[in-house]
Amino acid sequence: MISGYIDQGYTEEAIGCFEQMQLQGIHPNAATFVSILKACCCVEELERGGGIHAEIERRGLLDRNLVIGNALIDMYAKCGFPARAEEVFDRIPVRNVVTWTSLMSGYIEHGQEDKALKCFEQMQLEGISPDSLTFACGLRACASIGDTLKAQEIHADFEKKGLSFGDFVVNNVLLEMYIKLGSSALAEHVFDKLPTQDVDSWNVLLAGYVENGHVEKALKCFERMQYEGVSPNASSLVSSLKACGSVGALQMGYELHTIVNNDGLFSSDFIGNTLLNMYAKCGEMSKAQEVFDNLMVQNVVSWTALIARYVEHNYGEEALDCFEQMQMSGIIPDCITYICILKACGTVGAIDKGRVIHIEVEKNGLPEANPILGNTLVYMYAICGALKEAESVLEKLPLRDVVSWNALIAGYAEIGECGSVFSCFDRMLLDKVKPDSVSFLVVLNVCNRANSFDECQKFFMLMGAHGVVPTLDHITCVIDLCCRAGHLHTAIQLIKEHPFHSNIVAWRTLLNLCRRLGNVSLGRHIFEHALVLNSEDLTVSNETSDTYTFTDVKMHWEYEDRDHGMFVPLMT
Spans of the PPR repeats (predicted)? Predict the structure, then answer.
């Protein structure tokens, strides 16, 4: 009876049946213990599982029954205690492939992939051959830590054992793994070798492409799937709709919407919400609203999706209206909803509404529990110019990270409070928070606006100390100030020393800066370097022409190479 309850998914009833059995004085046997431990796994009942473990120990069953030992390892691993699973594993005198695989699975579940791979090697040293599930665990571990070489080694071993054909689980893990590792060609090779390419295999490939940013490949995969005569199901459509939203493929999105309607799948909340997101990401907010209005169930996920997209497209007022309607409908916002609506308050300067929401989230203790929500509160107050309130929120956060500090620093920068910007930056360092690229860009721009060359140099030097590599934005900002402050030599040194020197786009940006500043000397230097990189780039030449004609220096241009369109400046 206990086993039947578990097979049908009635785990609480199975546990109740076990307790009733004990009350009636009926002693459980090994099969009963295995079944009830499985039930504890399903509902993560660690305390009850621990009690059953104690009963097993009292009866001396652990040393005598391998199946019970394996069930205990599985229970502890799935309940979040891999260390206890290890203890049981070490107690088992003779282990089989299930013992090792259960421990490996527990390690992977809790982010200990290195230990899982060590298990994979050790079990083979002890003469235990991995089965398909063991291989699947090893491959998942490789995908998680990005070890392509080890993954290929395990894949080769799997094929040597003749297990590859027809093993649906491992083949799908192989597909997921290679896409996650960025080896889509290998994933496609595995896919093409499958004896049967059913809708589930296609879905693994589709979802893998989308989750790892290969959205164009996902759309081509969907088209190929239909060409091969495989009918898409709900999972195929969800992945393809996500891909359409990512690249703005609106026309294909319309076609997928038609398939959804024709197949009667619109009633699925998940597909409805994905359609809403697709239209919104393509900028079709009216269609997104239409999809939302037609949803059979408008839950917190769908309301939040609509609000988030309004915020994303800078429709702050519409987002606020949507939030009010949501609350009037009796839907309770979650953390993500609050994060989105606080951003909307910041965008439109609705500080009073932001304060009301702040009170609401504080009642539920959410800012302390959710760092992103706390950071969004800091951002909302900072962007609205209420910097004292932003500071107050920041001080109360249990974990202040670089995002929290950046929001406050940017707020002070927005209103031109240079002293407060520098003070906040120093406090961030005292708080043992490492500044990032954004932190430095904000303070460098403040130095630039304040014509503070010495401070600018100080912060620029600090970037290296904190391991932040300057981007083109940082360099352009510093060069701008160097030129205006008369430090031309420093500007030229920066250009020579930093890693964007081989990027023609970077040189174009610097040429535009020279044109704006009217700095001919620096413009000439940059032009010479740009021509070395790409003498055929007419755009560079034209921009340089603009730089020189912008000044009082008389310039004459002539073609040296008419085929390549290269201009050579001749000073007169």
Answer: 1-28, 96-130, 198-232, 299-333, 401-435, 436-470
Give the model's pLDDT for residue 97.
93
More confident residue, 549 or 365: 365
Q: Convert the pLDDT of each residue in 219-276 to its tens digit.
A: 999 999 999 999 999 999 999 999 999 999 999 999 999 999 998 888 778 899 999 9
Q: Which two tokens stand for residue 357?
A: 């929401």
d(CA 229, CA 239): 18
Alpha carbons 393 and 41: distance in angstroms, whole number: 40
Q: Find, among 269, 278, 206, the residue nearest to 236 by Cα.
A: 206
Classify residue 187: in a domain, yes or no: no
Rounded Cα distance between 202 and 172, Å, is: 10
User: Which contiguous run of DSSP H or E holds residue 450?
Assistant: none
Residue 72 within any structural domain of the chain: yes
Structure tokens at 489: 């030599």
- Quick one: what percent of the chain has pLDDT higher than 90? 42
Range 372-392 average pLDDT? 91
Q: Among 59, 79, 94, where does a domain finish?
A: 94
* More confident site: 424 or 181: 424
Q: Which residues of 415-450 are buried (b: 16+ CB within 10 A; e: fewer)?
A: eebbebbbebbebbeeeebebbbbbbbbbbbbbbeb
C-alpha span between 174 and 501 (Å, rounded): 40
Mean pLDDT, the chain, rounded, equals: 81
Alpha-carbon separation of residue 181 from 143, 242, 517 (angstroms):
6, 21, 46
- Which secondary-structure segment (H or E) carries 129? none
- Residue showing tokens 């390419």: 197
Q: Name the domain boundary from 72, 94, 116.
A: 94
Does any domain span residue 565? yes
- Show the domain range for 489: 470-572
Could you say which DSSP state residue 399 is in? S
Query: Rounded distance, CA 78 to CA 38, Å?
Result: 10
Q: How many CB atoms lie within 10 A of CB 19?
A: 11
What is this structure's pTM? Answer: 0.69
Q: Give how many domains the chain has, as a whole number.
A: 2
pLDDT at 558: 32
Nearest 5 degrees, angle CA 548-CA 553-CA 556? 65
CATH classification at residue 499: 1.25.40
Question: Is 340 within 8 Å of 308 (Cβ atoms)?
Answer: yes
- Yes or no: say if 353 and 384 are a contact pair by the CB < 8 Å rule: no
Give the per-residue pLDDT at 159. Answer: 83
Least confident of 9-18, 291-300, 522-531: 9-18
Q: Are 381 and 412 in contact (CB under 8 A)?
A: no
Above 80 in pLDDT, residue 339? yes
pLDDT band at 568 (very low <50, low <70, confident <90, very high): very low
In angstroms, rounded to a whole number, what is the distance separating the alpha carbons of residues 61 and 53? 10
Those residues with Cβ within 8 angstroms of residue 293's Cβ, 6 or more apart along the chain or in another chain = none
SS3 letters across 202-251? HHHHHHHHHHCCCHHHHHHHHHHHHHCCCCCCHHHHHHHHHHHHHHCCHH
Whole-angstrom distance, CA of residue 303 vs CA of residue 336: 11
Which 8-state DSSP code applies to residue 451?
T
**Higher pLDDT pick, 273 / 558:** 273
